[in-house]
Amino acid sequence: MNIKHIALLSVWIPVALYAQENKPKAQDTTATKPVALNTVIITGQGTTDPVLTTVKTDLVKKVVQPKNVADLFSDFNGFSLIKRGNYAIDPSFRASQYEQLNIQFDGGTKAMHACPNRMDPVTTHVVPEDIERIEVIKGPYTVRYGATFGGIINLVTQKPQQLDNGLHGSVSSGYESNGNALVSSLKLHQVTEKYDITANAGYRDFGNYKDGAGTEIPSAFRSLDYGLRLGYNIKDNQRIQAHWRQSYGRDVLHAGLPMDTDEDNSSILSLDYKLSDLKGFVKEVNAKAYYSYVDHIMSNTRRPSSMMTDAISTIDATTAGGKVEFKMKPTEKWILYSGIDALLIARDGGRTRSVKRNMMGDLLPQPMVFQDKVWQDSYINDYGLFAENKYAFSNKTMLTAGVRYDLVISETQDPELNFQQMYPNLEQREEHNVSATVSVKHQLSENNRLEVAYGRGVRSANMIERYINHFTVGQDPFEYVGNPNLDAEVNTQFEIGFKGTTSFEKGIDALQYSISGYYSIYENYIVPVVDPSLDRRFMPTAQPQEVKRFMNLNSAFKTGFEAEANVSFANYFNFNTAFSYVYARNKDLDESLPLTPPFITRLGLGFEKEKFWASLDYTITSKQDEISSSFRETETAGYETLDLRLGVKPLKDLQLGVAVLNIFDETYNNHLNFSFTNQADFGRVPINDPGRNFSVFAKFDF
């Protein structure tokens, strides 16, 4: 911890203590009924919530400082992480990833990455300390939240409406030994009956970490985030809210990518409106609009390739969209949701290459400068129309049925000459996608529920799959070429699940359980395949010489299950276990689909009292020998990790935590980790995860 960090804490802590001493007395807020915006999808109402959902709320007790929001999924059953380093991390759920997952904030806000290598995924644009809970719909089982292929992830930010009137806030800081990492954050709330204001800021400074063998992994980065949210209660049943946030990444090292991030700047503005408790046929109106802009600069100045060629890319991405939804109640047992939404994505920018040496390695008298179009000034616009019904056959059985239509318009407005030659009929393209779902919830008993669902989710190709032009954007070293004529992927998914709670009189206080199994039939699944008709464009003598083009598969499927149980016993103890398994098959090539995680078993023992808690978490990750040879995947050995976390509340508003992660200093890498790319001291081998790591954390509420 250096001087600037100590100085920062020395300022924050006195301010927090002063605010605590002068904290306004709680006021009676029952005179004005708070209006809750529809930022959550899963409300806790078992009959009306979407089918086959799960929620994670114990985010504070992680103790370890998350690198970005994706780190919050590290112990979430069914999830794995795709890591390109310590910063560019994407969540994967049931072997679905990237745009196959509908990831959003607060019920609809989105921000897409600018970098074609996903150096800046959506999870890097919001500070993790602002996330209160993570909601997951496990498949295409609702049509209300945009086009959905593999599932919906809703990241819910903290809301001040539950607080008493007055000034509230929190300050937190944490440190990790492996990588000399420091995280600090500050949050303030001002709440009145008519309005509320929330301001937050966070700073992260991570160094290179070491794996279990003591090898230093280039993974350092710095980031600064801040946000401001203003909510105004127009009436008891009417609220409007504006949310502004910005994030700045600097000097981000990506061990698994050919370049590093010099700068990554993102801005997100969202507006929400709700009108509720209406009389008549229409009961509620919800509206949302948002706009995000990402400015990304990356270069290879720290890499060996810069000795031959300097490369710098300046690219940008805009994401805009919105939604208007009406909640109607034709009868006492029938609820109808209907509305329209839009998602508009545009990207542009280019790469400047300065070739300094010829193919023999001789220095050129004057560098040769080339300009490459990264995104070819492309856009994809999705306009959706949806209707979803919920009908209660009885107080035990709820039927949900929905249908959705998406008009997808795409175009590249400034194509490279070679791309035009590959696709001579480039022009604006329209796609018409229809999704549908039917599901049933049945209350078997007071505490046990059966859920059965069918969903047809449709996803049109993303911008990389359509318009990338001879760039290395995968886990392997191939150049990739997009295909603007791809058909939309279709996931026809069936699932059945049970969940419930059982109470006992003696010994065991309660048993909570859930299990679900699913089967997906894929049509037009999009994968990159070697195309013998294409030649390598950049560095033509480099290996591999082959080039991959995105294509549609004729036949593929996926199946798997998740199961978990939690037993509370002896008043303060709990034991939990969770399993997740997925099997995905490319029947065209008779191999696994790429990026399929191995079987994972999680075991945890916890102790919790009012002022002290502890957890011991043991994770067993099996070997993965079901691999995609065409994707250049290799078999991955299994491994086991053990983590210990402790927390204490010495004062009412003060939380302290310590942790030891990877206690046995295991040297390992997850199957989804990228391999080292363009690094001076590494061959093309998978990136190892951190070795033993000590962490401390402190949070003060006022």
Secondary-structure blueprint:
Elements: H1 3-21, E1 53-56, E2 79-83, E3 89-93, E4 96-97, E5 102-105, E6 131-137, E7 152-157, E8 166-176, E9 181-191, E10 195-206, E11 209-210, E12 216-217, E13 221-235, E14 238-252, E15 260-275, E16 282-299, E17 309-331, E18 334-357, E19 363-373, E20 378-392, E21 397-412, H2 417-422, E22 429-445, E23 448-459, H3 463-467, E24 469-471, E25 479-481, E26 489-503, E27 508-523, E28 526-530, E29 547-552, E30 556-569, E31 573-586, E32 591-592, E33 600-608, E34 612-621, E35 639-651, E36 654-661, E37 693-701
Parallel strand pairs: 5-7, 25-29
Antiparallel strand pairs: 1-6, 2-3, 3-4, 6-7, 8-9, 8-37, 9-10, 10-13, 11-12, 13-14, 14-15, 15-16, 16-17, 17-18, 18-19, 18-20, 20-21, 21-22, 22-23, 23-26, 24-25, 26-27, 27-30, 28-29, 30-31, 31-32, 31-33, 33-34, 34-35, 35-36, 36-37
Word description of this protein:
The chain is mainly beta and 702 residues long. It has 3 helices and 37 strands. The strands form 5 sheets. It has a 22-stranded antiparallel beta barrel. It is globular, with a radius of gyration of 25 Å.
* pLDDT < 50 stretches: 1-32
Span from first to last CA?
25 Å
Number of helices: 3
Q: Return Rg in Å.
A: 25 Å
Query: What is the 3D shape?
Result: globular
How much helix, percentage-wise, in residues?
A: under 10%
The biggest beta sheet reads: 22 strands, antiparallel, barrel
Strand content: over 45%
- SS elements, strand count: 37
Arithmetic mean of pLDDT: 91
Indicate the structural class. Answer: mainly beta
